[in-house]
Design goal:
Helix content is 28%, strand content 33%. The protein is built from six helices and 14 strands. The chain has helices spanning 46-63, 99-105, 134-139, 145-168, 216-219, 225-236; strands at residues 6-9, 13-17, 23-28, 31-34, 39-42, 70-73, 78-82, 85-86, 89-96, 112-122, 131-132, 171-185, 188-194, 202-206. The strands form three sheets. Strands 8, 9, 10, 11, 12, 13 and 14 form a seven-stranded antiparallel β-sheet that branches. A hairpin with a 4-residue loop joins strand 4 (31-34) and strand 5 (39-42). The longest helix has 24 residues, at 145-168. It starts with 5 loop residues before the first strand and ends in a 16-residue tail after the last helix. The structure holds adenosine-5'-triphosphate (ATP) and magnesium ion. Magnesium ion binds next to loops. Its EC number is 6.3.2.6. Keywords: ATP-binding, Ligase, Nucleotide-binding, Purine biosynthesis. Residues 6-235 form the SAICAR synthetase/ADE2 N-terminal domain.
Length: 252
C-alpha cells in the first residue's frame, strides 16, 4: 500500500490526505505543549483520549445542528474530517475569568463573568497568537463582518452545548478555544467548527472540588494529565472500549 501523504504536522496532531477529495485524516499525537511550545512532554494515551473526546463533542454538535468537520472515527488515534480552509483565528469563549484574561485584567481565576464573552486571537505561533480586536480581523481581511457574526453565533451555541454536557458530568466549563473553517458548496461558503474540542483546548473544573481536569494540569504541574483526561472521558461515558471493565453477562 502506498504511504499516505502527510499534509501538516502540528504540535498535537498530524494531518494526512484522506481517502477521498475534500477529506483529511487527523492523527492525535501524545505530545503536550504549553507556553507556545516552550514546555513539551509526551504523555502516554493523551492522543487516544482526545480523539475520543473530540469525536464525542463534534458528534453532539452535529446532532444539534452546529456544523463541524467531523465525519467518522477511523481508529484509536485517527478520525476522518472534512478538509476546510482554516480561518486564522483562535475563537475563545469565556464563562469565568482564567488564564490570560485573569492576568490581563487582574481578575481572580474562577470569577463569574457578566455573560459569556467571545474573543479572538490571530493564529501565528511566531507572534504568540496575539489577542486581536474585530477591527483588525475585518481590516486585514482574515474574516468578513458577516463571517464574524456567524462565528460568534456558532461559538455561543457551542458554549451552551459544552456547558450543558459538562454540567451533567459535574464539571464547570470555564473557557475554551475553537477554530472555524470554510467549506465551499457550489457558489456558497459555509463556516464549520474544525480542529478539535478536547481538554487540551478547554478549562474544566470539577464543580464540587474545583480540581482542574484540563491542560492546566500540565501547564502548572498539578499531577497526571492523562488521569485528568481519563476522568473527563469516564464521566462522559466515552472511555475507549478496550480500557473499560468487561460488562457482566446476565444469565437467567
Ligand atoms: N478540517 C480541517 N481542515 C484543514 N486544516 C485543519 C482542519 N482541522 C484542523 N486543521 C488545522 O490542522 C492543524 C492541527 O494541528 P495541531 O493542532 O497539532 O496544530 P498546532 O501545532 O496547534 O498549530 P496551529 O498553530 O496551526 O494550530 C492546525 O493548524 C489546524 O488549524
Ligand atoms: Mg492546535
Amino acid at each position: 500500500m502506498a504511504r499516505r501523504k502527510k499534509i501538516y504536522e502540528g504540535k498535537a496532531k498530524i494531518l494526512y490526505e484522506g481517502p477521498e477529495p475534500g477529506t483529511i485524516v487527523q492523527y492525535f499525537k501524545d505530545d503536550a505543549t504549553a507556553f507556545n511550545a516552550e514546555k513539551h512532554d509526551v504523555l502516554d494515551g493523551k492522543g487516544v483520549l482526545n480523539n475520543r473526546l473530540s469525536e464525542f463533542f463534534m458528534l453532539g454538535l452535529n446532532q444539534i445542528g452546529v456544523p463541524t468537520h467531523f465525519l467518522k472515527r477511523l481508529n484509536m488515534r485517527e478520525q476522518l474530517v472534512r478538509s476546510c480552509e482554516i480561518v486564522p483565528l483562535e475563537v475563545i469563549v469565556r464563562n469565568y475569568a482564567a488564564g490570560s484574561m485573569a492576568k490581563r485584567l487582574g481578575l481572580e481565576e474562577g470569577q463569574a463573568l457578566p455573560r459569556p464573552m467571545v474573543e479572538f486571537s490571530y493564529k501565528d505561533d511566531a507572534l504568540g497568537d496575539p489577542l486581536v480586536p474585530e477591527e483588525y480581523i475585518i481590516s486585514f481581511g482574515w474574516a468578513s463582518q458577516q463571517d464574524l457574526d456567524d462565528i460568534v453565533a456558532l461559538a455561543l451555541r457551542v458554549n451552551d452545548f459544552m456547558s450543558g454536557v459538562m454540567y451533567g458530568a459535574g464539571i464547570k466549563l470555564i473557557d475554551f478555544k475553537i477554530e472555524f473553517g470554510r467549506v465551499y458548496e457550489g457558489e456558497f461558503m459555509r463556516l464549520i467548527v474544525a480542529d478539535e474540542i478536547s481538554p487540551d483546548s478547554c478549562r474544566l473544573w470539577d464543580i464540587e472540588t474545583g480540581a482542574k481536569l484540563d491542560k492546566d494540569v500540565f501547564r502548572r504541574d498539578l499531577g497526571s494529565l492523562t488521569d485528568a483526561y481519563t476522568e473527563v472521558a469516564r464521566r462522559l461515558g466515552v472511555l475507549p472500549a478496550n480500557t473499560g471493565a468487561p460488562k457482566p453477562t446476565l444469565i437467567n
